[in-house]
Amino acid sequence: MDDAKIVQLYWDRDEQAIPATAEKYGSYCAVIAGNILGNPEDAEECVNDAYMCAWNAMPPHRPRVLSTFLGKLTRNVALNRYRHNTAGRRGGGEAPAVLDEIAEFVSGSDSVEQEICRRELVHAINAFLGRLPEDKRSLFICRYWYFDSISSLALRFGMTEGHVSVTLNRLRRKLRNYLSEGGFDL
Q: Is 35's pLDDT higher than 70?
């Protein structure tokens, strides 16, 4: 079933929206949640919670790209679960390593001024990513958005694990320099 029909099922409040979503995007969402949590049972629960979030969001929201919408919902639910599961301890999955790698760019603050700065930071990071060659941009996004492991990235991009690590390290350094030059305090 195509995405427009699935979205219309949500808008029609047709319960077949969930099975149609699961059939088309279940594996995709499970990989995202699994990469973050490292636990198949928690990942499955997060995927189901993401479907519920989609049900509650449509209507009024009509996503233009259903896969991206579901991926973002799944990622947010999984990150919330990760924070809950690891309060005061380290957990499994790729989240600890990925979050350590980009800790200097991530802030947990929520004041109005800091929210404005966060939005400016997001815009700057998007501009930086837009300037990268497609392969490096994809590598960066797969690691820091989808939480893919170094080993899976090496397989996907036909690189050694060491080459992936070095490339990501260089990209983070370039991003740090780009943001510093843009006036961001890191």
A: yes
Statement to judge: residues 115 and 74 lie in one domain: no
- Residue 150 in any domain: the answer is yes
82-117 pLDDT, tens per residue?
888 876 555 556 666 676 676 656 545 455 566 677
Q: How far from 101 is each of 20, 23, 107, CA to CA, in Å?
A: 36, 34, 13
CATH code where residue 167 lies: 1.10.10.10
Mean pLDDT of 116-137: 89
CB 159 within 8 A of CB 167: yes
Considering the domain architecture, whether residues 70 and 117 belong to the same structural domain is answered as no
Contact 24, 1 (CB under 8 A): yes
Domain of 64 in residue numbering reads as 3-85
Q: In degrees, to the nearest 5, what angle opens at C-alpha 138 toward C-alphas 6 and 30?
A: 45
pLDDT score of 48: 96
3-state secondary structure 15-52: CCHHHHHHHHHHHHHHHHHHHHHCCHHHHHHHHHHHHH
